[in-house]
Specification:
171 residues; mainly alpha; globular
C-alpha cells in the first residue's frame, strides 16, 4: 500500500486519528497500513492518539502492534510521555478514573515508565496531584523496573559516544 502524505507530513493513519475517525483507522489497519509510520516530526499515529487522549484508538493501535517506545524527533517524547503531558484529561468524561485513559492503557501494555525525553523529563514529571499517585500505583503494581536500554542515536548517546571515542578535544 503506498503511503500518501498530506501537506503537514501526515499519512492517512495520522489523519484518521486526528479526525477521530475510528472506522477509517480500522479500515486502514485491516488493509495492512503500518502503525508505526511517522510524520515530519517523528510522531506515529499512537503518539497522536495518546496526545489527544483517544483511549480507544490507543488500544486499537496497540492491538496492531504499534511501538510504544518510538520517540519524536525534536523532543524525544514517547507515547506515554505525550499521554501524561497532554492527553490525560482529554477523554470524554474528563474524570480521573482507574480505567479509560491513554496513559493507563500504555502502562498496562508495557510502556516504559522511566524512559525520558531529550530534556530528561519522564512521564511522571508532567503529572500533579492525584494523577501522580495513580501513576505511581500503576507503576509499582508492575514490579521492579527493568534495566533501561538507551535509545539508539539519541543526542545523549551521540554525545557520550563522541566523548568516549575522543572526538571532542578539550582546549
Amino acid at each position: 500500500m503506498p503511503i500518501i502524505v498530506g501537506s503537514r507530513g501526515h499519512a492517512p493513519l495520522h489523519q484518521d486519528v486526528l479526525r477521530r475517525d475510528e472506522a477509517c483507522l480500522e479500515t486502514l489497519l485491516a488493509q495492512g497500513a503500518h502503525p508505526d509510520v511517522r510524520d515530519m516530526d517523528g510522531f506515529t499515529a499512537l503518539m497522536h492518539a495518546s496526545c489527544t487522549g483517544q483511549t480507544s484508538m490507543v488500544e486499537r493501535l496497540l492491538d496492531a502492534d504499534a511501538s510504544m517506545e518510538r520517540h519524536a524527533y525534536r523532543t524525544g517524547d514517547t507515547a506515554l510521555i505525550l499521554a501524561c503531558r497532554n492527553g490525560i484529561f482529554r477523554n470524554e468524561d474528563r474524570q480521573l478514573s482507574e480505567r479509560g485513559s491513554a496513559f493507563q492503557s500504555l502502562l498496562a501494555r508495557g510502556a516504559e515508565p522511566h524512559r525520558t525525553n531529550w530534556a530528561f523529563h519522564g512521564p511522571r514529571s508532567f503529572l500533579t496531584g492525584p494523577k501522580v499517585k495513580l501513576f505511581d500505583r500503576l507503576v509499582s503494581a508492575k514490579g521492579k523496573p527493568r534495566e533501561l536500554v538507551p535509545l539508539e542515536h539519541s543526542p545523549q548517546e551521540q554525545a557520550e559516544r563522541a566523548i568516549l571515542e575522543g572526538v571532542w578535544a578539550w582546549h
